[in-house]
Amino acid sequence: MQALVLDDGSSTAPLVTALRDAGVLVTAAGGKALRFTPALNITEEEMDSGLKIVEAVLENQP
Fold it and tell me: Domain-by-domain residue ranges, the chain?
């Protein structure tokens, strides 16, 4: 399990929704962190693909 802590002004709710819509499931943790809990059998290719989606979603947020 890993988490990405957001800046003080960021809200997790819109990011959780945007990531879900893009195909990546995360949960909000503590109000300003996104928690990633990948399956134990995730492949390196699946991880790379998911991280590229996360990067794209974060770049497109206001």
Answer: 2-59
Cite the DSSP H helix spans in the chain.
Answer: 12-22, 44-59
- Residue position matching structure tokens 């770049």: 59
Q: Which residues contact 57 (CB under 8 A, 6 or more apart)?
A: 15, 18, 19, 22, 24
Pick the CATH number of 2-59 from 3.40.50.11890, 3.90.1150.10, 3.30.1360.10, 3.40.1190.10: 3.90.1150.10
Q: What is the pLDDT of residue 14?
A: 93
The whole model's pTM is what?
0.86
3-38 pLDDT, tens digit per residue, is 999 987 788 999 999 999 999 999 999 889 999 999
